[in-house]
Design goal:
- By secondary structure, this protein is an alpha+beta fold.
- It has one domain: Nuclear Transport Factor 2, Chain: A, CATH 3.10.450.
- It has 4 helices and 8 strands.
- The strands form 2 sheets. The chain has a 5-stranded mixed β-sheet with strand order 1-5-4-3-2.
- It starts with a helix and ends in a 14-residue tail after the last helix.
- The model has no long low-confidence stretch (mean pLDDT about 85).
- The structure holds FE2/S2 (inorganic) cluster (FES).
- FE2/S2 (inorganic) cluster binds next to α4.
Length: about 210
């Protein structure tokens, strides 16, 4: 049952990526309870989930979500995920659209009769608005390069990116995070364009932990 619920949670995230909202009818109960609706004004139940996905995809039409990790216990599934997306709309106070950004988060879902009946979502919204440049004045001195599971390198901090000729890429519109292609398939190298999830990129490497 746990594996079936995990597969349903992954399929639900696929619907966020594809926009095929009808697929949710077989995965999510009509009166599912969202404990952390985003935005808070979203309608309740399954309709609210569809409404939220449609709204998100309107702003980020190329939204792609990949699953980084999943844990299941009893009737609950925890999914850690990350999303790449490019903004097309220009919310007030946010710099010009066209920047690709990365959002990570965690979702806990409770299942009954094979469908989600309760959910708790914790997206890193502060990281998102920082990467969109909507929170000025916050700077991170330390440079961190994080390998996304089967995805790009996410670089945060104040960095310079130099090409083979010594010319510097303009990162002024990239906000707080830059996603660098690790799969080799991006059409906008060195930046990630989400191709990794379409080509099924598998990155097996892990940092070696010292044995105790
Ligand atoms: S890692 Fe994202 S396109 Fe290559």
């Amino acid at each position: 049952m746990s594996e079936k619920n995990k597969a349903a949670a992954r399929e639900e995230l696929d619907a966020w990526s594809s926009g095929e909202l009808d697929r949710l009818d077989g995965l999510v109960a009509p009166h599912v309870v969202h404990h952390d609706p985003c935005p808070p004004s979203a309608p309740e139940g399954l309709e609210g989930l569809k409404w939220t996905i449609a709204l998100t995809r309107k702003v980020f039409p190329d939204l792609e979500i990949s699953v980084d990790d999943q844990i299941a216990e009893g009737d609950k599934v925890v999914t850690r995920w990350s999303a790449t997306m490019t903004r097309e709309d220009d919310p007030p106070g946010v710099p010009a659209a066209g920047d690709q950004t990365v959002l990570s988060g965690m979702t806990i879902e409770r299942f009954a009769d094979g469908k989600v009946v309760e959910s708790w979502r914790s997206p890193d919204l502060l990281g998102l608005v920082q990467s969109l440049g909507a929170v000025p004045g916050i700077e991170r001195e330390e440079v961190v390069i994080k390998a996304r599971h089967n995805g790009p390198y996410k670089v945060t901090g104040r960095v310079k990116l130099i090409d083979a000729d010594g010319d510097e890429y303009d990162l002024s519109d990239k906000g707080e995070a830059v996603a660098l292609c690790r799969c080799g398939g991006s059409t906008t190298k060195p930046f990630c364009d989400g191709t990794h999830s379409k080509v099924g990129f598998q990155a097996a490497e892990r940092a070696v932990r010292e044995s105790l």
